[in-house]
Amino acid sequence: MELDERKKKILESIIRDYVATAEPVGSRAIARKEEIHLSAATIRNEMSDLEQMGYLEQPHTSAGRIPSQMGLRYFVDCMMTQETLTEQEMTSLRNSLLQQINNWNDVVQEVVQFLSRMTNYVSFIILPALRFEQIRNIQLVPLQEGLALLVIVTDMGVVLHQKIPVASSITPEELQAIAQTFSRVLRGRGLNSLHRSQLEILKEQMLKEKRLLDSLLETIDHLMNNSREEKIMINGLMNIINEPEFKNLEQLRSILSLLEEQENLKRLVPDSMGSEVGIRIGKENKETDSQQFSLVFSGLRFSEQIGKIGLVGPIRMEYWKAAGTLDSVRAVLEDILDEMNR
Amino acid sequence: MELDERKKKILESIIRDYVATAEPVGSRAIARKEEIHLSAATIRNEMSDLEQMGYLEQPHTSAGRIPSQMGLRYFVDCMMTQETLTEQEMTSLRNSLLQQINNWNDVVQEVVQFLSRMTNYVSFIILPALRFEQIRNIQLVPLQEGLALLVIVTDMGVVLHQKIPVASSITPEELQAIAQTFSRVLRGRGLNSLHRSQLEILKEQMLKEKRLLDSLLETIDHLMNNSREEKIMINGLMNIINEPEFKNLEQLRSILSLLEEQENLKRLVPDSMGSEVGIRIGKENKETDSQQFSLVFSGLRFSEQIGKIGLVGPIRMEYWKAAGTLDSVRAVLEDILDEMNR
DNA sequence: TGTTAGCACTCAATAATCAAGAGTGCTAAC
DNA sequence: GTTAGCACTCTTGATTATTGAGTGCTAACA
Lengths: 342, 342
What we know:
homodimer, 342 residues, alpha+beta, Arc Repressor Mutant, subunit A, Beta-Lactamase, Enolase-like, domain 1, 3 domains, three-stranded antiparallel beta sheet, elongated, DNA-binding
C-alpha cells in the first residue's frame, strides 16, 4: 500500500511530533509547521484518510492522532533514513575504547554505557560463549603448604584458573614437572580426546600422587566445560523511568523486572541475523510482557563469533537515531574486538 | 531520656504498625492490639506525650501518628532485638555457597541476591581491592605468530593476564626461558623492588629481544597496579519500586539514579567499622540525596581484608529483620571467604 | 475538484464542591 | 489515673461543572 507524497509528509510530521512530545498531535500543530503549507482542515481530511488506512489512530474522539504501530512500521520500512554517528563521534568512541583494549570487560562496558548515554534508551550486549576447544598450556603454581593454583591457557587466549589442594609433601619442582607432562599430553586437544594410552603416561608421571591425577582431570574438565558462559551487559535501565509512557508504576515495574533478568533479555532478542539493524515494534515482540516496548538490535560479528547488541525503548522511539547509532557503534566495536582477538 | 514501660510498648506498637502499613497509626488501632489493654483515650494521652518528647509526629491534625526518625533511633538503640536467620537458613545458605566455592564472583553474587530476596530491600557488597604485592609465577604462552599471552600469578592466587606482541622469530622455548628468568628474578617481590643488577640479568637473557623486555616490564607493571580495583555489587534495585514512599516518580528516579552509580554507594557507606551492624536512619545520612532512605551496613572481614556489606531501604524499614539477616549473612560469608582464601 | 473557513459537537482533564470517615483533644465522670 | 462521650479537624473519594483542544461536517471559494 503506497502513500502519496503528501500523506507521507504528514505521517512523518505526526510521527516526529509524537515521538518528541508523547502527546497526540492535532491538525493545527501540523499546519503550523513550515514544511507543510496546508490548512488544518485539509490536514484533517488527510489524517482521516490515514486513520482509515490504519496508519494513525485516535485515543478518543476529541484528541489528536497518534501513529499506529503499523504507521511506525511503514515509516521505518519505507521512509526513514538512519542517523548514524558522525565521523568525529566514531573516532572519539574508537579512541576511548582503544585506551582499554587490554580489558575485554571494560571495552564492552564502555560500549553499552556509550549507547545508552547517546540514545537515552536501555542498551544491552550479549556476547557468545567464548569458544575454546583446545588447551595450549597448563601450569601448577604452588601457593602455600598444600595448595596450588591450576592455570589453563586455551587456544583463544582465555585464561582459566582454580585453586586445588595438593599433598603438602609435594615439591614445587614436582608440580612443575606434572604440569609440563599435562601440557605436553593435552596441548592442542580437549579432555574428550584423551586416549587411554595418554592417560597411562600421566599416571606413570604421577606415581607419587595418584589422588592429584583425579583431582586435576576433574578440575580441568570442569573449567573447560563450565567457563563458556554467555556474557550479558545491560546499561541505562533508569532511562526508561523518564519515558512518560511508563509513568504508570505497574507498567514500570513489569518492564524493569523483565529487563532486570538477563535470561529474559536473551529470549527477547531473535538470533540468527546479519549486521543490518533489526527493529521490533511493540506487538511485534513475541511475549506479551515485551509488547509494551520496542527493540532495536543487530548481530555482532567478530573473529568468527556472533553476539548481539541492541536498544530497548518505548514504542514511541526515535528509531532513526537508535538504529543509526546502534549501527555505527556496532561497526566500531566489531573492529575493536577483531583487533583484540587478532 | 528514658521512657517508662508503657510508653515503650506503645511506641513499639506504633512503629511495627507503621512499618507494616506505611500509614499513620491512630489510637484505636493500638487499643485494639491484644498486648495492650488500655482504652484509645489513654493511648491518645500517651501518644500526645510521645509527640511532645519528639518520638512521634503527626502528618496533620486529624491523622494518626507516625514515628519520627528520633523515635526510630530510640527504638533501634534501646528496644530492638535483631531477628537473625535460623540455624537452618544459615546452613542452607552456606551449602548453597559452598557449591560454587571455586568462583569468587558467583559466591558474592549469590549473597547479594540472597540478601535482597530475604529482606526485600536493596543489597550491596563492596569488596576491597585484592592485595597482591608479590609475584609468584610468570608465564609466556605462545598463542600464534607474533602473539603471546603473559600470565602472572600473585601471592594471593590472583591471576592476571594480557596478550602482548612478540617478534615472530622467537621460539616457544625462548619464550619459556624468558618467562622462567622473569619468574626467578621477580618471585616474591613486586616490580618496585627490582634492582639494577637484576635488571641486568634480565637484559642479558634477552639479548635477542630488547624490545620485548620493555614491553614485558611495562605490561607487568600495568597489570600489577591497575588490577586492584574495588568490586561493588548491587542487587534488588527493583525492590524499592514496591515501597509506597517512592510511588512519587521524582523521588524514585532520584534514589534509583543515586544507587545506580557505584561511586555514590561507596561514598554513602561509612568505613572503618567492626563487625557490628550499623544503622543510618534517613537524615543521619550525610548527603541530602541519601536522606530519604535508611542504610543498614556492616564491615566484612576476611583474611586480613575489609569490605562492606549492607542494605538500603525506606526509612520505614524493618530494622530488626534487616540488621539480623545482614549479620547472619555476614558471618556465613566471612567464613566462606576465609575458606576460599585458605 | 481540491482547499479552506466556520461552527457545532465530543470528550478528557482540571477545578470546585460535598459528604464520609478517621482521628484528635478536651471535658466530665468513674 | 483511666475512660466514655462529643465536638472539631482534615484527608480522601466521589460527584459535578468548566474549560479547551480537537474533530467532522458543511458551505463557500479558487
